[in-house]
Structures are given as C-alpha cells and as structure tokens.
Design goal:
It is a single chain. The protein has about 220 residues and is of the alpha/beta class. The strands form 2 sheets. The protein has a 5-stranded parallel sheet with strand order 2-3-1-4-8, with helices on both faces. Bound molecules: adenosine monophosphate. The site of adenosine monophosphate (AMP) has 17 residues, from helix 2 and helix 3. Belongs to the adenylate kinase family. Pathway: Purine metabolism; AMP biosynthesis via salvage pathway; AMP from ADP: step 1/1. One of its GO terms (biological process) is AMP salvage.
Length: about 220
C-alpha cells in the first residue's frame, strides 16, 4: 500500500504518518526530514537547500525529485510507503507518476488533511519534539504529561524547528497556497483523494483515516 499525505504545513501530516507507519507496517518518507538530515551533514544537497528552507521557500523540483526517486527504490519501500511532504508542486506530482509507472508501482490512497489556515500559524509555532526520540508535542494541544519530561523516553531535552518561527510560517503558507494547493485537482481526478477533517483531536483524525484505510 502506497499513500500520499497532502495538506498545509502544520496540518498533522508527520504525526499521522508516524501512526500509520506503526499500524500498517509502512515506511514514512518525509522529504523535510531528509533535507534536514542533509543540512545537518553539510552535504551538497543540504547546502543548496539550507537558505531556502530557512526562509520558508520550496527547494527546486529537480533536487527533491532525485532525492525521492533514490529513496523509494530502496528495498524497505517494497512493503509500501507513506509520502509526507511530497509532492508539493505539479512538477513533482507528474514526476512521481512517471517514476511509479516505470517501476510498476502506484499510489493507492491520497489523504488530504484539511485545516483552516487561520489556526495553522498558532499550531506550528507551538510545536516541539523530544531531542532524543523525536516524539512530537504542542504547547497548547498536546504538552508532555509531566512538564519538561518526554512521555516516551523520559528525556528532558526538546527542540524546535528553525523554520517554525512565525515570520517563516507566513512564507511557508504562501508557498503552499501558490504551489502545493493547485495539485489537489490532479489527485481528485484519480478518484483516490480522501479529504480528512484535520481540525479534530489527533485520535479522531486517526479514526477518520482508519475508516478510509478499511475501505481499501
Ligand atoms: P516539511 O518538513 O515537510 O515542512 O519541509 C520543510 C521544508 O523543506 C519546506 O519548507 C521546504 O523548504 C523543504 N521541502 C520539504 N519537502 C519539499 C518538497 N517536496 N519540495 C520542495 N521543498 C521541500
């Protein structure tokens, strides 16, 4: 089973992808996480992406398509994958289509996490993760049970993404509106697009997704 998660930044794609990964034994592929790892390594890709990411702009299609293509060719993806943060432009959607056809694969489900734009900025600026195990939290909607202690691993260290600052979020939302939202009709035409209300509590969003998955 191959899945695409669409939705604006802060819609909950990462959180829901991780839950699906565990529940269905799929591989989560987050192009944002891959790029952050490249930036941390200081690779050529990382150097090309760094300043664009810091200012909330998308990195060029050719760079991201090459990176994604080599990732989905890896053996662990044979059991199925969840694309989180890709495709983000019409060019990427078309390139994905072509690369899947060439390897006899296809997308089974496209999940669109629908969240009103006016609540996204607050959501994003409130989020943070455990520096040790990566568990995700939000100051308002999902704080750790004990203040300053990770629920999952007990660590006291947390981190925030550099691009979750309010001014960068504004730019990321602009990029989403201009370049990513226009790909929704592309997937609507395939009949595989399912809109999910992403404004409900996390467990209710998961329940909606599970209903869609049960129908596959
Ligand atoms: P994300 O973690 O998905 O929010 O992505 C963080 C940043 O990485 C984005 O704001 C972009 O700068 C870059 N990025 C991630 N995925 C893509 C993509 N598919 N196309 C272009 N840029 C991307």
């Amino acid at each position: 089973m191959n899945i695409i998660f669409l939705g604006p930044p802060g819609a909950g794609k990462g959180t829901q992808s991780k839950l699906l990964e565990e529940r269905y034994g799929l591989v989560q592929i987050s192009t944002g996480d891959m790029l952050r790892a490249e930036v941390a390594r200081g690779s050529e890709t990382g150097q090309q992406a760094k300043s664009l990411m810091e200012t909330g702009r998308l990195v060029p299609d050719d760079l991201i398509i090459k990176m994604l293509e080599s990732r989905i060719a890896q053996p662990d993806c044979a059991k199925g994958f969840i694309l989180d943060g890709f495709p983000r432009t019409t060019g990427q959607a078309e390139a994905l289509d072509a690369m899947l056809k060439a390897s006899n694969k296809h997308i089974d489900v496209v999940l669109f996490l629908d969240v009103d734009e006016d609540i996204l900025a607050d959501r994003i600026s409130g989020r943070f993760t455990c520096a040790k195990c990566g568990a995700t939290y939000n100051e308002v909607s999902n704080p750790p049970k004990q203040d300053g202690v990770c629920d999952s691993c007990g660590s006291h260290e947390f981190k925030r993404r550099a691009d979750d600052k309010r001014e960068t979020v504004v730019e990321r939302l602009k990029e989403y509106r201009k370049l990513t939202a226009p790909i929704l009709p592309f997937y609507e035409k395939t009949g595989r697009l399912h809109a999910i209300n992403g404004m409900l509590p996390t467990s209710e969003v998961t329940a909606q997704i599970e209903t869609v998955m049960a129908g596959q």
